[in-house]
Amino acid sequence: MDNKQQIADVLSQALGDNILSNIDILNKIEVPKTSDLGDLAFPTFMLAKVMRKAPQQIATDLVEKIDKNNFEKVVAMGPYVNFFLNKEKVGAQILTDILTQQANYGTNNDGENGNVTIDMSSPNIAKPMSMGHLRSTVIGNALANIFSKNGYNPIKINHLGDWGTQFGKLMVAYKLWGSEEEVKKDPINTLVKYYIRFHEEAKENLALDDEGRAWFKKLEDGDQEATKLWKWFRDESLKEFLTIYDELEINFDSFNGEAFYNDKMDQVVKMLTEKGLLVESQGAQIVNLEKYNLPVAMIKRTDGATLYMTRDLAAAMYRKNEYNFVKNLYVVGGEQREHFQQMKAIFKEASYDWADDIEHIPFGLITVNGKKLSTRSGRIILLQDVLDDAIRLAREQIETKNPDLANKENVAKQVGIGAVVFHDLKNERVNSFDFALEEVVRFEGDTGPYVQYSHARAQSILRKAGNPDLTTTNLVISDASAWDTIKILGDFPNIVRRALRDREPSVIAKYALNLSRAYNKYYANSRILAEDNELLARLGLVKAVAIVLTESLRMLGVHAPNEM
RNA sequence: GUCAGGCUAGCUCAGUUGGAUAGAGCAACGGUCUUCUAAACCGUAGGUCAUGAGUUCGAAUCUCAUGCUUGACACCA
User: Fold this and answer.
1) Sheet of strand A80-85: strand arrangement
2) Are residues A217 and A356 located together in one domain of the fold?
3) A203/A77 same-domain check
4) For position A287, which CATH number holds?
5) Does the model's ipTM exceed the 0.90 cut?
6) Residue A81 pairs with which residues in a beta bridge?
7) pLDDT, tens digit, for every residue of A334-386?
8) What is residue A452's DSSP assignment?
9) Domain annotation covers residue A234
10) Where on the phi/psi map is residue A117: left (φ > 0), alpha (ψ -120 to 50), or beta?
11) Which of A185, A240, A312, A537 has its CA 20 to 30 A from that of A329?
């Protein structure tokens, strides 16, 4: 914000000598808690010692010397110098920027078009998508949009869990208790049933686990029957996943899952051997990471089969080659922190300079009654059920609130899914939460539908006004009650950068709520469609709010319907 | 046991780089629709920022210790 710079400049000038550098002053300027304390403020505490004066006195003296021409007013309030910006001038500039740049407002080119690979969603084949996968999916999708808004080129990779011992187990279960007919009727649910039964029986019959491992080994060795079963399970599962992704309107640049790297494992082993990192321990091949204060990483099991780590190493090398990423992100639950630390450490140890570009983006887990979700134990919340419930409730809401609405079904989808997605993104990623349907599909208060509703009302006003062309309008608004909203609008470019810096979609979600709150307050207390000479300027504000809310929601992967 | 998170209103959470009186939403209570969509707005009430020490002009924020809690800790992912 160059208002800040402007203030730093007048302060530098007033302070004279080299007491504080311009940049130091700039860094000290803060935003007061409430707007009656001004728009920006400079605390004088740190000058007290050098100037040997009380902070209050320093503030008063500074105000005397400052060039106040470009501000509404500059006042000393205790130890602070408080700056009130010229609301009409600054406000008109912000609104003009938004109306001319439209959806590009807030976009920057910090990323210089660098490729960012994002490992996200990554559901396991033969298991239903649960609320847990929703997190990785929507966080990854929002981050992709945020990176893009900051000038990067995101590459969304769905690293499908289509390989691993669980397939061996599933094959054993299918061969013991399954039937082709049953699977065809309801693929995923049936496969899960087998999987759960396997784990129940494996508790009694320890040989089952060994058998599962053996079948997985057969699969890895290219056994015909194993391969055929695997492919069948995979195809059926993918079909179901795609319907959910369609509903969420999330797409991927790659579905290369774990199986894709089967033929790339040898390179990893070769590389680690050449670097002298691979050692044998208790019959298995491992990399020692004591140096990094991490447990050993297992690369090959005693039976020669590869592991999660081996495949992730292969995937990272492949991605570097294929995409030459500037950042390589993994949107994976926080419980896997150590795994990614290990992975990074291995690449560091192997002296790959891009090891530092690997970033784990952890998130908190979803529990039910405080307990972790688990397919094995059958404790699972199906994503499809939640989405269906949300859409149904949105539909009911529309019937009571706006029964004449056109496209009811479409809007119900946008609002219902919007509620679920927004709920998942509004809090800091790393927070865990206990699942409660009534929380997830709430439409009032700090929710997605609240933001959508704010936007819909803004659109409604613009419609009533006949959607006038506002590009050449004088956007000066003298009504001070519009100022809070305008100020928040002006903050959007900063917010976009902060969301990127912190890898936090919640920064955008919180911003959208703040903007909505400020706008709703303004809406409730001022009549926008009043016939006076500032009508068009006010419509410009409404339009700007609509643009920025739409763009915020878009980044989160949520629709902004024009009516609801 | 080791390592890593978390602890702020009854509940769910905000609180950029330490700064002014710690803020929202939900729940509770009260008010506002003949005027732009009441999925909204306004008000009341609600706090020893887990505890103790330290650094600082100043700590919810930084350091250390303690407690409680969650997760990870090689042949799963």
Assistant:
1) A40-43, A80-85, A71-77
2) yes
3) no
4) 3.40.50.620
5) yes
6) A42, A76
7) 989 999 999 999 999 999 999 999 999 999 888 887 777 776 666 778 899 99
8) H
9) yes
10) beta
11) A240
Give the count of beta carbons closer than 10 Å to the beta carbon of residue A205.
11
Give dist(CA A135, CA A121) in Å, integer: 8
Query: What's the sign of the alpha-carbon dihedral A216, A220, A221, A227?
Result: positive
CA distance A53 to A76: 15
Query: What is the per-residue pLDDT for A17?
Result: 64
Dihedral pair phi/psi, residue A478, rounded to 5°: -90, -20
Q: Is residue A91, in this structure, part of any structural domain at all?
A: no
A406: tokens are: 């056109």
Q: With a 7 Å cutoff on the CB, does A281 touch strand B?
A: yes
Q: Whole domain around residue A477: which residue ranges?
A: 400-556
Whole-number pLDDT of residue A49: 83
How many domains does one find in chain A? 3
Distance CA A8, CA A279 (A): 59
| Bases along strand B below 7 A from a protein CB | 3-6, 12-17, 19-27, 35-42, 57-58, 70-77
CB of A493 nearer than 7 A to strand B: no
Name the pairing type of β-strands A115-119 and A153-157.
parallel
The gap from C-alpha A67 to its chain's centroid, in whole angstroms, comes to 43
Nucleotide minimizing C1' to CA distance for residue A45:
B57
Q: Report the CATH number at residue A15.
A: 3.30.1360.70
SS (H, E, C) A478-526: CCHHHHHHHHHHHHHHHHHHHHHHCCCHHHHHHHHHHHHHHHHHHHHHC
CA of A335 to C1' of B73 (A): 11
Q: Which of residues 217-256 of A touch strand B (CB under 7 A)?
A: none
Closest nt by CA–C1' to A159: B77
User: Is the distance between the Cβ of A430 and the closest atom of strand B smaller than 7 Å?
Assistant: yes
**For residues A152 and A114, is the Cβ–Cβ distance under 8 A?**
yes
Establish whether the CB of A525 is closer than 7 Å to any nucleic acid atom in strand B: yes
Closest amino acid to nucleotide B18 (CA–C1'): A28
pLDDT at A227 over 80: yes
